[in-house]
Amino acid sequence: MLTIVVSIASQCPCHGDTTEASRGRPNILFIAVDDLNDFSGFASEEPGNFLQVIYPDPEVRRQVAGRLTPTLNRLAKQSSPFVRAYCAAALCGPSRTSLMTGVAPHVSGYYLHDRHFRLYPTLSDVVTLPQQLRRHGYFTAGAGKIFHKAVGDRNGALKDDWADAKRSWDIWVNHAQGAAGKPGRFSPPNGGLMQFGRGHQPQQETGDWKTADFIARVLESGSATATAARGRLGERRIALPPDQPFFLAAGLFRPHLPFYAPGEFFDRFPTTEMTGLNSDNLRTIVDDLKDLPPGAERFTDYRGGKFRMIMDHAKTVGGPSVETQAWKALVQSYLACVSFADSCLGRILDGLQKSEYADNTVVVVWSDHGYHLGPKYHVAKQAVWEKANRVLLVIRDPRNPDACDGTPRRQLASLNDLYPTICQLTDVPLPGPKVGHSLVPLLNSADADPVRNEVVFTYMKGNHGLRTATHAFLRYQDGTTELYDMDADPRQLSNLAGDASYAELKASLNQQLDVWLDDPH
């Protein structure tokens, strides 16, 4: 079913100048992928990537990387892939809101997506990225999940306008999301969204494919119409104006839970190849919990949570001996969803390539946060560990050959850097201080100096992670800490916070975190 709800933002300020200077600026194709961690094939050999645990055989892993994300692999070779990029918060709403507003979560207080971000006093009048572009001559439109939830205004109430359709967009189109399916053998009953198994829809009937196909048709033809299978607004059309540059957004819902994808994507990842998901590595994960401080313990699933739910259900299905089978089934489902999302991304990029806009459209592909699939005995995002906060970020500027050479950018980057980066690329001024830094110097050269010395991410009030080029320092609301040498220990298996020989470094990083929290700009 395709549900379309669109609000034309009639209450926003008038568009800016759309004269010759405006028309000469690049278009922006802005694509979000929900809950995608660092499992992109092109990043599979980066230190600490959990694919190296799942597939310890390098040749098998190479083959899996090719099957997993062929679209992203091709895009990365033609782009600037940022392989050390992080979110502001490992939860959909806070991460996306911080990116789109340029306000850090600890400043806004937006830690949960419990309500529309503009209902927070700190964000009620904030100027979002598409809103600022719109004020300065850009046509802004999109479909899918960009802000938290893909729902535009339905009944005139702000609480229903999750997409911020009234202020941020000329046209917002609501599509159904993800793909339908049925729980597999190891999917726990009564698990809510924690379900996984083969989907029963052909790819062309899934919500994510319909979103991708719609955006692709907009690009190919300059306009396209989506018909609501239900809803009040009927057919809605996006038409790209000939006299304005555009900011066109597409939000893909997979690999967000439930982990359902069309069956052909499951066939790409037979569980027999996942030789690293064994009892020894499961024991390593459990043993890794021994040096966690009290503040971190509540974020593991060991005493309750998704991973515990899956393991307990596995025992009821076949006893302790099938725990690793359940783990493999979970990972297979996630990988299938990643590959399905990659296929949808391919439809969008093919549409761009066939269009008249290809040579003047900057492509930005990002994920809103990472995702644990076992490490720290955790299956979720919601944490300040590396796996929950490391994200996909790829930028291609076809006007700049240096930004299309495929060289990995290993300098630290944050999703918060996208607001100032896009404003610089489009010659749009920032509406005020923003938490990020422009990545344009790194687009121009992979050897450029870093634009930031640290990245800070937050989950819930008072829980922060500080990531430098070499270390990760995590501090919880109760004051307890973790410290990791990310060069020597990229999987974060050895907490050094209690080691006296690291006391000076720990104190320095603690102060660095305080300084940033006091002035994130």
UniProtKB/TrEMBL annotation:
SUPFAM superfamilies: Alkaline phosphatase-like. Keywords: Calcium, Hydrolase, Metal-binding, Signal. It comes from Crateriforma conspicua. Gene3D superfamilies: Alkaline Phosphatase, subunit A. Pfam families: Sulfatase (PF00884). One of its GO terms (cellular component) is cytoplasm. This is Choline-sulfatase. PANTHER family: IDURONATE 2-SULFATASE. Its cofactor is Ca(2+). It is an enzyme of class 3 (hydrolase). It comes from the Bacteria. Belongs to the sulfatase family.
